Amino acid sequence: MQRILFLLLLFFLSLSAKTTEGDPRSSTVLVWCSTQLEHNTTIYVPNFVATMENISRQIQAARFGMSSIGSGPDTSYGLSQCYGDLSTLDCVLCYAEARTILPKCYPNNGGRIYLDGCFMRAENYSFYDEFTGPNDTFRCGNSTPKGQLFVESARRAVLEAAGAAPSRGGYARAAVAVAGSGNESAYVLADCWKTLKPELCKACLDNASASVMRCLPSSEGRALNTGCFLRYSDTDFLNPAPSSGGLSRGSIIAMVVAIVSSVTVVSVGVAIGLYIWKHKRIEKKRKGANDVEKMASVLGNSSLNFKYSTLEKSTGSFDIANKLGQGGFGTVYKGVLADGREVAVKRLFYNNRHRAADFYNEVNIISSCDHKNLVRLLGCSCSGPESLLVYEFLPNKSLDRFIFDPNRGKALDWEKRFDIIIGTVEGLVYLHEKPDIRIIHRDIKASNILLDSKLRAKIADFGLARSFQEDKSHISTAIAGTLGYMAPEYLAHGQLTEKADVYSFGVLLIEIVCGRQNNRSNKACDCSDSLVISAWKHFQAGTVEDLIDPNLILHNYENKDELKSGILRVVHVGLLCTQEIPSLRLSMSRVLQVLSNKDEELPAPNNPPFIDEKTMELNDTCDDPRLPLNSTYSVACVSHSSFHPR
Ligand SMILES: *[C@@H]1O[C@H](CO)[C@@H](O)[C@H](O)[C@H]1NC(C)=O
Ligand SMILES: *[C@@H]1O[C@H](CO)[C@@H](O)[C@H](O)[C@H]1NC(C)=O
Ligand SMILES: *[C@@H]1O[C@H](CO)[C@@H](O)[C@H](O)[C@H]1NC(C)=O
Ligand SMILES: *[C@@H]1O[C@H](CO)[C@@H](O)[C@H](O)[C@H]1NC(C)=O
Ligand SMILES: *[C@@H]1O[C@H](CO)[C@@H](O)[C@H](O)[C@H]1NC(C)=O
Ligand SMILES: *[C@@H]1O[C@H](CO)[C@@H](O)[C@H](O)[C@H]1NC(C)=O
Ligand SMILES: *[C@@H]1O[C@H](CO)[C@@H](O)[C@H](O)[C@H]1NC(C)=O
Ligand SMILES: *[C@@H]1O[C@H](CO)[C@@H](O)[C@H](O)[C@H]1NC(C)=O
Ligand SMILES: CC(=O)N[C@H]1CO[C@H](CO)[C@@H](O)[C@@H]1O
Fold this sequence. Notes:
Blueprint: H1 2-15, E1 28-33, H2 41-62, E2 64-69, E3 76-82, H3 88-101, E4 111-115, E5 118-123, E6 137-140, H4 148-164, E7 171-176, E8 186-192, H5 198-213, E9 220-224, E10 228-233, H6 249-261, E11 275-276, H7 280-288, H8 292-301, H9 308-314, E12 323-326, E13 330-336, E14 342-348, H10 356-368, E15 377-381, E16 388-392, H11 399-403, H12 414-433, E17 439-440, E18 449-451, E19 457-459, H13 465-468, H14 476-479, H15 488-493, H16 498-514, H17 531-541, H18 550-554, H19 560-577, H20 588-596
Antiparallel strand pairs: 1-4, 2-3, 3-5, 4-5, 6-9, 7-8, 8-10, 9-10, 11-17, 12-13, 13-14, 14-16, 15-16, 18-19
The structure holds 2-acetamido-2-deoxy-beta-D-glucopyranose (9 copies).
């Protein structure tokens, strides 16, 4: 439940940044992971998840949380704190960001993350009194050096804030303004973790101020210590003291939060992943097969089964050096079998033994998907100490490595990209129109499109979410970073149809053309708009060419006009797929038709979601009279829409 909340909140953040009053300052300054591996996954993961959940409840009330859950070497100790100038809402947003990043330290047993607005740390021991350590460090801005006036004001402000904080509950801010000058003023924030006594806080901040002053005359400096954070800057990054009164964004979202929290319906899962429908025949078969022993024996006989020890050996006992990446549901390692075959082994984060029968079923369903544009599941190890899935190994990894990288992007000219697009479409048509079981992928994104040795597209990670749908504590949902791809009706209402995949696919099309990710933290551009909105605006203005990935134009094409019109057509289809109203979006088979037949006339696209710039309002068909019209966002309707599997 909390997770859904965070996703929604993050979504608001990304969409309504223009109307933001405060700033959660959720950009990451530094992450470091502890060097020890967790002791026992089966115990560690649930403890970690429970600690995060516990802290998130405290954060919403106090902008600070600490918790320890479990016993022995797998106890999870956690602490998270927002810096003193963040409002509760901004704090929740910053924490949400920290929480999505820190689990990436797994399988190491802890780590800490410093963001510009908050801090979070998890370990398997009690670290609450620690205030100094060998890894205390600082980061300096690299802009042109400032003048002597600024150096003076920064020194004064740092000493003032660091001096005041220990006696004021650990937090202080300071600003030293220099009269008559635009940019010689200095702004400082100092914050100790609330678990530290004043004298330890002082020791930490004394060290931090000394560190940070080594940055002068740079315009920015940040000290990242075990027990405190200190930053100075020449820009006023501090949030104003919270104002009261008025229906601010904060209060609207707080209301939305309250409503969403009360809805059990959502618990069905806005989990990222996949939803499978079964026709009645299969439903029956499934019920009959709910016997773990029987399934295990069937599987034991089938070619799908791999021995745990074989796989363990093939990956060098899950050696970090063989790690290929981290997917939604587990860590993927490269393995080489005794016969020389290369495979990708996915080690699932969390194994729920009593759901083994369902897991076997899903493996069977996934392995029944056989299409040239789907990554093949070769089998699993279902009976060893932990569940492993074995996939075909694809040497060129995933599409995001290419299109979002200015150098590797050159390897994909327009023809290759177009082939990848068509391959992805064909894979999706297959999943959506399979006669026995229709599958919604739910997590189409560039990193889930893998490339084989000839750079042909293969869709990965379909079929798993179903197995984990009921694992409320499953860690993967805390890691999912796919906000930019989620269809609005799915995100807000949990409504899941194939059109949610179509939406994500539309985003992907636009990304492939532009060579940029659909998110706002994209520093490479003046992204006040998301990529989709920006594509829509350029489309309306007839200037889509401005968005095209420079790598595409590098290549020598004989017929530049044909190239251009081909690219424009793909953007047009992308916009038809990302229309706000799901029923207007094309079906995947229709997409295949219009992409294959260049002469077919395309309708004009309707707007993508969140286009009303003044109010940032989602033009939602929400008709609850109790809700204020023109509220910033109408997710509040969640309460009485329902989850509509068909
Ligand atoms: C992990 O803990 C579980 C539950 O206590 C236990 O059954 C399992 O054997 C342990 N695994 C390892 C590798 O120690
Ligand atoms: C959260 O953690 C705190 C501190 O460890 C503990 O006192 C509290 O009972 C926990 N709350 C829940 C709901 O687990
Ligand atoms: C933390 O985990 C490591 C390795 O997993 C273990 O060796 C160590 O004893 C644990 N620490 C505590 C305090 O239990
Ligand atoms: C400090 O960080 C380095 C590199 O991240 C790590 O190897 C080292 O163990 C860390 N020290 C402590 C005390 O955690
Ligand atoms: C800001 O500082 C720079 C040098 O640090 C100076 O060249 C510039 O004129 C200043 N700008 C204003 C508006 O004072
Ligand atoms: C701050 O403390 C760390 C760790 O004890 C130490 O290495 C560093 O030199 C100190 N910095 C200053 C400026 O005293
Ligand atoms: C598995 O194979 C064994 C021997 O090959 C056979 O006796 C058994 O009936 C098979 N089990 C199933 C469920 O097919
Ligand atoms: C946003 O885009 C940037 C640059 O493309 C990327 O590094 C970052 O990971 C993205 N953030 C998310 C949350 O996807
Ligand atoms: C562009 C790129 O990296 N292509 C590689 C894809 O994988 C094959 C087989 O491993 C390599 O030969 C290519 O260089």
